[in-house]
Amino acid sequence: MNKDESLYIAGPLCFYKNGYGMWNALRKEAEFNGFKVALPNDNVLDYEEGNKRQFSAAIFKNCRDSMNQTTCIIANLENYRGMVPDGGTVYEMGMAYGKGAKLYGFTRDKRPARMKFGLGQYKGNEIYDLDGRVLAHKEIPFGPCIVGSTKIIEGNFTDALKSFMTDIEEESKLKSNRNVFIMDADPQATVLPADKPRVYLSSFERYDNDAKEKFEVMKKICDKYGLIAISPLDDAPMVEKVESDDVYEMAYNQFDHYQQHVRNCDLILANLNDYHGYEPNDDVSFECGMAFQLGKKCFGYLKEVKPMIELVPNKGKDLEYRDVNDMNVEDFDNPLNLMFGASFTLFDGSFEEVVKKVSEALVDFKLADDLVPAIME
Residue 109 maps to which CATH number? Predict the structure, then answer.
């Protein structure tokens, strides 16, 4: 049974000291249990020596090619440079979901966000984060995109692998029972094509107290530049709206809306600024990976588009740009993880300035063959 499955092992191990040795150990464990493994370092990189952004694009292309062989992803969901997982890992989870793969994640801490976020402050009965917004999805361990798409295992890679193996056995039993039908998620859009491009505003503003008002302003700006905007707060056509006291049921329903918005849009515009640390918000990262996998036009914006080694505190070149956790900070001339830097056209400026640039870029949109989109200031 296992030989029919091809695993993608996702996580920031490549930034650890001896990380590649650890990565290969996980690979050997999966192969010992009969799985095929598809990893980005399986293929030789094709890039021009000294061209850092092309180097990052070559790595991304290998990630994309490996992902397209994948039937299951097992992802490391440990907090990374803040209170959320590695953005590149969550991006890959979005890619995996977009292609219909099974998603498993492991973490040593499945506690609700309110228990993991040690810097929250009470104002009345609500917990607020350091940015002054109510702490989002505080009763679940991750954002709705991860919770709704992924089987989350408390433990390590071995625990997640064992859980996957058990599920394969149980699925085989179910398939043998003719009255049980296993159905994948509907991959189709639920809206008709429009006369203007439809853009999904993937942003952590969805958690703000005044999110509705903010998205209304953003939608008017998009309309001014010829775009139909969808926000995460909007109901997705053909997706039932659920009201429940069960926090997981609500998270799953939120995810159903989010993922359908990604399917329904022509392009995604993602707020990739830091969220509770030095990584993008995990719902946004997931939606970005899913959008890329589904062939959407991908745009993002940040306050600054300087190289990551200038944005994340580190020990400098002589000490391999190691951060406070002794993890390597990427040096690819991108402002954030290469998964975004190699697949998204990135802008800075005000939201209106960004939307204007997006509308102009759509007139003659092309993603270069080397997958290095522009960084626009």
Answer: 3.40.50.450
